[in-house]
Prior knowledge:
Elements: E1 2-9, H1 16-27, E2 31-33, H2 34-44, H3 47-58, H4 64-76, E3 83-87, H5 93-105, E4 112-117, H6 120-128, E5 130-133, E6 139-141, E7 160-161, H7 168-182, H8 184-191, E8 195-199, H9 204-215, E9 221-222
Parallel strand pairs: 1-3, 1-4, 2-3, 4-8
Antiparallel strand pairs: 1-9, 5-6, 5-7
Helix pairs in contact: 1-9, 2-3, 4-5, 6-7
Residues 10, 12-18, 34-35, 38, 55-56, 59-62, 67, 88-89, 91, 95, 126, 129-130, 139-141, 144-145, 165, 174, 200, 202-204, 207 line the site of BIS(adenosine)-5'-pentaphosphate.
Amino acid sequence: MANLNLILLGPPGSGKGTQGERLQEDLDLPYYATGDILRAAVKEKTDVGLKAQEFMDRGDLVPDEVLIGIIADRLESGEADHGFILDGFPRTVPQAEALDSKLHELGRSLTGVILIDSSDEEIVRRLSGRRVSVKDGHVYHVEFNPPKVDGICDIDGSELITRDDDKPEVVRHRLVQYHEKTAPLVDFYKQQGLLNRIEGGEPPEKVEESIRKLISTLSLEEGS
Ligand code: AP5
């Protein structure tokens, strides 16, 4: 059996969550979105959540060791033995190096990194109109991807709200963090021959189609 071990990389609001949700349904692989994992921890008031909340509210990155621990636990658990999709991790060079060494230790390797690219102007437009369901965090946009019934999630039926970190001043800070700390991963993965760039400014269906085409060209890891 061949394994698909994928990273979705890109600026905040570029569409990683939107595409990740579609890919997960399609490929039936474990999907680890670190933003979702952290938001669940904040809601449940776990130790990780209590530690993460102040960083997230400011739009800062949560310390590397917290995120490295979260992902290492999932990779070691066995549930990702036949592939995985990572969304929002790694987000710094130390996180990427830690992921490489964990995969190496497990005799695994990455299949590819998909960079969903978008301009800063488009990101501000998207995040100001984003709405998420209170229950499970399903993602909508008031203009580009509206729910069938205004203010209600099509999937889980809960209320749609604006994320705290989608306030304009926090979005601007998240973009600064992205350019300083996450954008260097583009070269990091280019040098490893793993980077694949997708134009994220297209409508969601077009982006999805480009990702599907790209995945069909990737050479998969040999699994057991
Ligand atoms: P996280 O939740 O990962 O936030 P993010 O990377 O900033 O990404 P977003 O969720 O904002 O956007 P997205 O790319 O998923 O876009 P979406 O599909 O929703 O992280 C939150 C925080 O957690 C971080 O700030 C940090 O504090 C912490 N954190 C997480 N991981 C970490 C890590 N590894 N290290 C340290 N800290 C970490 O789309 C956005 C909007 O656009 C939606 O409304 C959607 O409907 C719409 N849309 C999507 N695609 C399209 C399209 N093609 N055309 C038009 N509209 C579209």
